[in-house]
Amino acid sequence: MFSNASNFVNGVDSAFLIITGISVFFLVALTAAMIYFVVKYNRKKGKPAVQIKDNSLLEITWIVIPMLLVLYMFYIGWEGFLPMREVPKDAIEITAVGSMWKYEFIYPGNKSSDTLMVPLNKAVKVNLASKDVLHGFSVPGFRIKEDMVPQKNNYSWFTAGELGDFDVYCTVYCGVSHSYMNSIIRVVTPADYDKWLKALPVKKADNSLGLKVLEKNGCIACHTLDGTKSVGPTFKGLHGATIDVTTAGANRKLTVDDAYLESSITDPNKDIVTGYPPGVMKSYKGIIKDKDIKLINEYLKTLK
Ligand SMILES: [Cu+2]
To answer: What are the phi and psi torsion angles at 77 (to 5°)?
Structure first.
């Protein structure tokens, strides 16, 4: 409780303590009053019950006091929450990308790492993105927690005030290995941060655009990228491979090149891969642009 780990810790902790305090006070007070009344007003022989009607002062008291308390609890929560959405202008921007089941942190200059390195005492804005499903970005030590929503730009920010490692958890159930989706925020001195960032290699040119086309068009539902057989043949090692196909009823061998890949996508039933049924894959002619077919080809070449 209470630390300088981030600029939000003290505000969140005091709101938490105050609300817990109020709750505990009422739990004890109400339970004690209840027990006292049960003993004092239990049914006694030969004593007629007394009916009590209206007591305006009492009623106003028990409406006004709890209302003020509840409004106060709302206020301290609100007051603590607002600054979390107001990022200082000079904040460093880092993007956190969640995917099943890991985090990737992307720094200025297109560098990336799987732990989030941040400098001490500097405001850091973390843009939150998701590649697939809903994920969470929760840093209990910093008292921050935000969702990473696909197709939406969310963010979080903090200023770390203590050196050390802090856990990051995915707090949204995102599939089988959800419980393994965690990472670390490592707070280092600004000098160490600069040195580390400088040494971090720039991310390789993005050849995964083709992968996006495959994902967007649902090809991955029938074709795997890792060598396993699925409804259709795997894409791994396909480019340049020699395969058996049936063309117009006749078996033949061919070497997979760009032209074959293109005709497999636009006219999949022309050459049927031996061992697979015809008619399962529909033609993507006119659905996938030539430009995107090129991207697919470029990507498949990298799948050795
Ligand atoms: Cu997740």
So the answer is: -70, -45
